[in-house]
Fold this sequence. Notes:
By secondary structure, the chain is an all-alpha fold. The chain has helices at residues 2-24, 28-53, 58-70, 74-84, 86-109, 136-162, 167-191, 198-218. 75% of the residues lie in helices and 0% in strands. Mean pLDDT is 85; it is low at 222-227.
Amino acid sequence: xxxxxxxxxxxxxxxxxxxxxxxxxxxxxxxxxxxxxxxxxxxxxxxxxxxxxxxxxxxxxxxxxxxxxxxxxxxxxxxxxxxxxxxxxxxxxxxxxxxxxxxxxxxxxxxxxxxxxxxxxxxxxxxxxxxxxxxxxxxxxxxxxxxxxxxxxxxxxxxxxxxxxxxxxxxxxxxxxxxxxxxxxxxxxxxxxxxxxxxxxxxxxxxxxxxxxxxxxxxxxxxxxxx
Length: 227
């Protein structure tokens, strides 16, 4: 419970700081990072509420699954791409909109069976039907894979690209790369049934992410919402 409280407080605090950064510097990458951190804050808050209630209820479970299990890294990955290439990030986001809406529909409408969970408030997708085209459990895979590859791949590429030319930006993207590894490891362990590490992993991941964004953000030139 203590780790859950820390994760919730840290996630909301970092979302607030990132959103404030976007208000000061309205760049696309700041907007996407703020949205990604908002989803993380909603996910860990839903987990905490389930623990306090002693079990999931349908609304909290669907909120947790959409914000955490399905899109925990989607918009963070798009933010990393926007940090390197805003036009490519916009194009990819537009291409993903139909799939995001379909995933939202599945999460909102798929039947739930909480008896499949190993414990009443376990953060696991097992309450949804087995993975299929009409089950949200299938769609978490491409969203998480895409988000993680964008976060890690773009961050690593940018770190190597700017290591000599812009050390501050390289240090920031190196931290984003580490954040991607932490978040991906947490998600992978959960998928294989290792639960209980989500709060610590997500808290560490979003903390590293915020530090990385803050450093990289200082080195980027802005042109309003076009940067």
